[in-house]
Every structure is written in structure tokens, then in C-alpha cells.
Amino acid sequence: MYVTINEDKCIGCNACIRVCPVHEANRAVASSGKNHSIISINHDMCISCGECVKSCEHGARDFVDDAERFFHDIKSGKKITVVVAPALRLTEPDSDAMLAHLREIGVNLIYDVSFGADICTYMHIKAIKENKVDKVMSQPCAALVEYILKHRHNMISMLSPVHSPISCTAAYLRKYAGISGDIACISPCIAKKFEFEETGLIQYNVTFKRFVEIMKRDFTYDKTKKFKFDNVPAYCGKIYPKPGGLKDCLLNVMPNLDVRNSEGVSHVYGELDYYAAADKNDRPDVYDILSCSHGCISGPGTNFDESRLFSYMKKAESLEASSFHERRKQKAFNVDKQFKWFEKHLKLEDFIRNYTPKQTNNQPASELAINSAYAKLMKKTHSEKHFDCGACGYKSCEEMASAIAKGINFPENCHQFTVKKIELEQEHANEASVVIQSQNEQIISTINNITDDIEKICSDANGINELCLNNSGEMNNINEIINILNDKCVDIHSAVNGIIDVNKQYKEISESIKNITDQTHILSMNASVEAARAGEAGKSFSIVAQEIRTLAANTKNATSTIDESEKLVNIETAKVLEIAKEIEKVANNLSGAISHVSGNIDNTISSGQIIRGTAEDIRTAADRLRR
To answer: What is the pLDDT of residue 610?
Structure first.
């Protein structure tokens, strides 16, 4: 049986740490996806006192017992003997009807633990009278016994060797009633599971709470049914559930015995340390201790309702009065018949328990580790280290520092640390705010400078735009002149081509004249030959032939001159044509360059407009930032 946690319901309120007598049983961890811690459970350290279950208002802490397994085994036909703690009759109005129904579903033997409590009282008296014990702590409370076995090994020898009332009942059934099968206990305590596992006397721990839940959920029983236990009558053991029950039972028999009692988690665990440190002569003969402040009726396995406390106490007082009255009635000649029977039939050694310490490695944190934890908590001064607000769940800052040193808690779970952290973050925020303010002022100054520059840019952009527009007009004029020049070059080119054509015709005519001259020259030579043949008769013709030859020679000379002139004309014409082509090429290149420059000017105008628009946007944004 263990205390359980529902992490979805845990809000990290630290109430469980606050009430827990073993801080190491709780480990604070940062929750995943949540803004608070979750208090998990270290079952090796936990003593199942159940205080966290009772104090958790969010339903995050609960416990498991053997109730479901018990009822399942009963339904399966398993023979189980039941022992019932006397607190059931004090806290549950229908307890008799429920126990009667248990018989009907298969339980044939049901014992009252009050009978075992009477045995427990008698065995304490016997051990004291026979000097078998000296200055002992009672051990009916399983949570306190588990605490000593796990965390106070030096006190094990101080525990009473006599079994608890429940285990005395089970020991009696095993040793003297011949019960060999399983035994189930209907108990108010979830820590009883530890006792049952260690002694082997009982196999089921069925808490009142789960027992009542299942009876109401799964069964229909007659609430008017009467019930009687199978054991012989019990007497004062019925008052064991109330605070100081063992004390009252012992003093009823031994009035001079020094018996003191203490109950409640808030101080009984601390008093154990005082008890251990006290001089032996100062200790009481019997120290009757219980973990639950109102005794077993307020156990974590009960349906204890604090608003009904005085009703419970009135019942307990009434039961106490009747129990002591019944004990006095059964006396004869000042001899207690029950104790006389115990003396005759029961042996002390059958009701003795041996204790085995449990190792938990619960070592105290070193001073160095605690100082390191204080540093993590940002606690430097004496007052800071003793702030002791209790918000973390611990009584002191030292306990919190120890928990951090042991790794079971973390600084963010400290209220003072959180406040300091917030203050530091606020200081950092203020410092950052000053820096940001300074930077904002610089930004505003820069924005003002940028705005001034933007004004200049806008002005310059407008100037560039106007200049580009003017240049664009000039370029258009130059382009028109270049186009005219190109046209003139075309005209020159066309005129030169016309000269070349005329020159070609002139050359053809020159060739014709040359051919005629050659023919004339031949004819003149032939005429001279014929004139010579004619003698005197041909003299006059010879003169004509001579003139013709002279004419042909002159014509030939003229045609030669024409050829030379033609060559010169061709050369000069070619030069003119080449110059015209160069002018045309330069004009074309200039025209292309002008077109490119014109395009650039257009782009510059467009870019200037964009720059001006962007500058206006920046100026508008800067004005917004200034506001």
C-alpha cells in the first residue's frame, strides 16, 4: 500500500511538504508545460502516515489498499478470516450491518481487534512486571514505527517489543485459534501494510474508507441487522482508537506507572528526537504515541469528518465508561478474570515483535552544500537565511536549503527567491529601459538627421529630374541634327555613287574614242602607204593621212590624259565615299550613344521619381516614430 499522486491535479501548493514528517519523501520537480512545481513521492522514504492525503485539497494525493483484491478473493470462494479495528464502530453508523453482510458473502470468522488490544495491554504489564522492558515507546502506530525503522535507527531499541493490538489479534488467531489461512484487517491506517508485510501475520489491509465504498457500491445489505464478533468479550481495548487509549488501559491496572501520551504529526515526530536525547531517568515508563492528532478515528484510511469531532469523542468517552464498567464487573475477589485467563493460556514470546532497520540512504546535507544552496537562493544575510515564511512547505529557510542541497527541491519554489528574482528582473528592466530611452533619443536624433538628408535628397532629386528633363530635350535636338546629318551622308553617298556611274559612262566613251583613235591611226598608216604607192598623185592624200595620224596621236594623248584624270577622280571619289561612310558610322554611333544616354536620362528621371517617393515614405515613417 502506498500513497499515490495524480500529477494532473497537483498545483504545487506545497501543503504535502508542510505536513510531511519526512521531507525527503517529497521531491519538487518542475512540471512539464505548466507554470508550477509538482510534488512527487519517494516511496523509499515515505512512511505512509497519510497526512498529505488528508491535507491535499486538490485531490492530487490518494492511496491504494487491498480492498479490491480482498472482495475479489471472497467472491472467488477463498476462506479469509477478518479482524476489525475498533475505530470502525466509532466512525461508521452502519458498521454492524456491513460486517453482518460480510458473513453472508462468505467470511465465517470475524474478530474484534479490541480483544487483541486487551492482550496488548496485558503483555505490556507482564513485560514491565517481569523487567523484560524498561522505558519503552508504544508501537500500535505503524507510521511511527516505519519512521523509526527508516529514519531513526538509534531509537529501534526504544520501541516496545510487544505487538500492536492488530498483530496481537492475528498472533492469537494463528497460535491459539488454529487459523492458518489468510487474514484480512479492516483498519483505519494505510501504513499498517508495512507492519503486515514485515510480520507476515496479515495478508490484506482493507481501509475503512475503501471497505465502506465497496460495500455501498457493490452490495445491498440490511441496515437493521445485528452483529456479534466471534471472539470472547473484549473490554478496555475498545478505547485504543482514542488519544491516550493505551495509557488509560495501563493506568487502570497500574495507577503508579509513569505513562505519557503524544499525538499529531505537527509535534510528535519532533518530540521523538527530544525523547531520544533525554536522560533515561527523565523518560516515562511508557511513551504512548500516535501519528494522527485525534487518534485512530482520524486515520487517513477512515471517513473522518472533523466537523463531527465532538460526536466521535462523545462516543469514545461513552465507550470508555462502559468498557471500564464491564471490566470492573468481571472481576472477582479483585482478580481480573480476563487477565487471569491470559496468564494461564498465553505466552509473552508469542506476542513479541523483532524489528529490522531499513536502509534509505537519508544522509544530512553537508554545510558546504547548504551554503551553496543559500547562494542559489540568493540569501546572503542572517535575516535572509532566517526569513522562514513557510511558503515552500518547510518550517525554515535552512530546511529549504537542505532540500535544495539534497536535490529534492529547487530555488524557484522559494517565495523570497521568486520575489528577489522579480526585483532583479525589474532592475534589469529599468536599466534596459534607461538604455532603450537613450537609444530612442539617439534614434530620434538620427531620424531627424535622416529627415534633413531626405529633404536634401528630395530637393536634389527634383533638381536632377529637371536637369534630366532639360538634357532629354537637348538630346532630342542633337538627335534630330544627327538624323539630318545621317540624311546628308546618305545624299553624299548617293551623289558619289552618281559620279561613279557618270565616270563609268565617261570611261566607256573614252574607250570608244581610244578604239576609234587606234583604228584611225591604222587607217592613216594604210593611207600613207597607199599615198606612197601613188607617188605624186598621192602626195595630197599623204598630207591628209599625216594630219589624220597627228589627230589620232593627239586623241590618244587626250584619252591618256582622260585615263589619268579618271584614276584621280576614282581615287578622290573613293576618298569622299570613305569619308561619307566614316561620317555615317560616327553619326550612327553618336545616334546610338545619344539614344543610350536618352534612355539613361529616362531611367534617371524614373529613378528620381522613385527616390522622391521613397524619401517621402521614409519621412512620413520618421514623423510617426517622432510622435
So the answer is: 72
